[in-house]
Amino acid sequence: MDTHAPLTLDGRVADAHVARLDVAIEALDRPAAYDLAAALADAVRSAPALHPSPGLGPVLRGLRRLRLFDAMRDLAEATIEATPDLPEARRQYGQALIEAGELTAALSVLQALAVDTARSHPDEHAQAQGLIGRVHKQAYLAAPDPTLPRYQDRLRQSVGAYFGIYQQAPQQHQWQGVNALALLCRANRDAVAVEGYPDRAALAADLLDAALSSDPTAPWDLATAMEAAVGLGDLDRALGLAYRYVRHPATDAFMLAGTLRQMIEVWDLDRDDGGPRQEIVDLLRAHLLDMERGGLQISPAETQEGAHAPDAEDRRLEAVLGRDAYVTIEWYRRGLTTAQAVAKVRVGTDPLGTGFLMWSDALGLPAPRRPVLVTNNHVLSERTAVAHSASPDYAEVVFEAAPDGRFATGVEHVAFEDPPSPGLDVSIAVLHDLPPGVEPLRPAITVPLNDPAAVRLYSIGHPRGGGLAFSIQDNLLLDVRAPVLHYRTPTDKGSSGSPVLNHDWTVVGIHRAGGRLRRLTGDGHYPANEGVLIQAVAGLIAA
Questions:
Q1: What is the DSSP letter of 443?
Q2: Cα(146)–Cα(152) distance, rounded to whole angstroms?
Q3: What's residue 385's pLDDT?
Q4: 473 with 480: CB under 8 angstroms?
Q5: Helix axis angle, 103-117 relative to 122-141, nearest 10°?
Q6: Is 54 helix (H, G, I), strand (E, B) or coil?
Q7: How far is Cα 12 from Cα 48, in angstroms, rounded to an integer?
Q8: I want to staple 354 with a disulfide (CB 3.0 to 4.6 A). Which of 59, 107, 339, 461 is the partner?
Q9: Residues β-bridged to residue 500
Q10: Which residue stretches of 47-102 are H helix?
Q11: 92: closest CA among 122, 50, 63, 51?
């Protein structure tokens, strides 16, 4: 798709223009959708008059589904500037502000929308009130000291916003009701007095019955029922409902990410020593990680805790959910184990990139067989001519997710290096010490060349030098032409040297660059990331 052809308007946002963006959204093509949304927003701003296409609402919802909140915000803002009376554009703009953490601005937008739609658009009014509840909820959850009265008032305001709408039409506004339930339970745990609401167990029972009486049952019905079961303390039932939710054909990454956030931030389900509470979180994370266009960021502590589960818990999980769910969660846990072999490379406090452990003989290096660090040459080099790279004398390698806790070491020497250009941009280093209990990664035996688009790829690194993250969004192989491969797995500064992995968690390549790259096959350019095939590195060493 040519995402850079100019969009033109003749006083109207033509359906054809919106349709091009809708095609990109339906194809889950985030780079194309981002570019087309930006071009459409520019075109809307420059139009002398605007009569919005009916397709704008679905497009904004589609951008939200792809979690392209910057693009969603920009297009909604452009639409509001041209036609300020569109309630959905105003609501989606408010939602994008929430996702950006701009809570005060979001509250102002949503409160005005709630007033303006109170009589004319009851559905939009209910949605706006629910988002006002979310603003107050996020303010409380992010409070540096939640015991302060002003933050506890935000919790009460959140409950009031959610429950007020739910009370008006309980069957229609279940998501507002289950948020009120979750916050009432959170207030009870935090010893915050919130008065004037029904008994929590009674509210949970009503929500559970209403959600499961829907015909057909939609994803949000199952998510509501799951939270209601948690509120009742029926965790095995909640786990079963969670499994139905993640397997529903209409459940997407946006839904899963929101539910996961709710279960962690509000219900505190990840602060439990195993059992069904943690299994619910693991199930949601596993399916989000495995879902096309999903995304997941895992802290080192979560990696350490989740990599291995007691055998008794594994047997119970398989008994409750069946073999398929068990296999998915085991795959996720293998990914956590894989992450333990990934390290941050830095000088002082300045992050330079990522590296990972492999066995030396898997790369063709001479004996002795030992674990070595693989990264980019522009991250680590003994050659002073390589710009911005760290010298082994000053580099620190930090395994944030090592099984026994954070492990830092230095570089003994660089055993092999090939320059960025015209070379492969790879360095292989011997470390002073190795983190106990970490298993080096294995190379992939082959990379399918006949159908690259069917291959899913994963990257684990330290984007922007931050916490360990799985980069899963746009996780498709685009093309392969030895010695490089192109893929849509998003990466960020600090990801240089990250392992590019297949679904078996074996190493396909080493990430080295990203941007608008020349296609490996045919003419033109496209948004892509580039890695060096691990087989090419081994071949170069053996040559």
A1: B
A2: 6
A3: 66
A4: no
A5: 160
A6: coil
A7: 9
A8: 461
A9: 459, 509
A10: 56-65, 69-82, 87-99
A11: 63
Give every CB contact of residue 309 below 8 A, 6+ residues apart in sequence: 274, 317, 333
pLDDT along the chain (543 residues), means of 10: 43 64 81 86 78 73 87 92 86 94 96 95 94 97 95 98 95 94 97 96 97 89 97 94 92 88 92 74 84 61 60 53 64 87 90 93 94 96 79 93 91 94 93 95 80 73 65 69 83 76 92 87 84 94 89
Q: Which residues of 371-383 are buried (b: 16+ CB within 10 A; e: fewer)?
A: bbbbbbbbbbbbe
Instruction: Please count the residues of the chain.
Output: 543
Residue whose token pair is 């459940």? 251
Q: Measured between alpha carbons, how far is 403 from 279 in angstroms, rounded to an integer?
A: 20
DSSP 8-class letter at 438 = P
Handedness of CA 137, 143, 146, 149 (dihedral sign): negative
User: Is-contact 325 279, C-beta < 8 A?
Assistant: no
Rounded Cα distance between 246 and 98, Å, is 25
Cα separation, 135 vs 226, in Å, equals: 23
What are the backbone dihedrals phi and psi of residue 329, each rounded to the nearest 5 degrees, phi first? -70, -35
Which two tokens mark 186? 């959170």
Q: What is the pTM of this model?
A: 0.76
CB 114 within 8 A of CB 156: no
Closest CA to 342 of 439, 262, 228, 482: 439
Q: What per-residue confidence (pLDDT) applies to 1?
A: 41
* Alpha helices in 7-148, H assignment, sequence order: 15-26, 30-46, 56-65, 69-82, 87-99, 103-117, 122-141
**Strands of 499-501's sheet in order across:** 296-297, 469-471, 458-461, 499-501, 507-518, 525-533, 484-487, 477-481
Going by C-beta distance under 8 Å and a sequence separation of 6 or more, which residues neighbour residue 180?
A: 133, 159, 162, 163, 166, 197, 203
How many Å apart are CA 112 and CA 96, to the nearest integer? 16
At position 422, the amino acid (one-letter code) is P
**CA 131 from centroid of its chain's CA atoms:** 21
The Cα angle at residue 222 between residues 221 and 226, in degrees rounded to 5: 120
Which residue, chain included where needed, has tokens 């490996």?
A: 520
Q: Please say whether the beta carbons of 334 and 302 come within 8 A.
A: no
Reduced to 3 states, what is the DSSP secondary structure of residue 369? Answer: coil
Q: Which pLDDT value is given to residue 2?
A: 42
The confidence score (pLDDT) of residue 95 equals 94
pLDDT reported for residue 132: 97
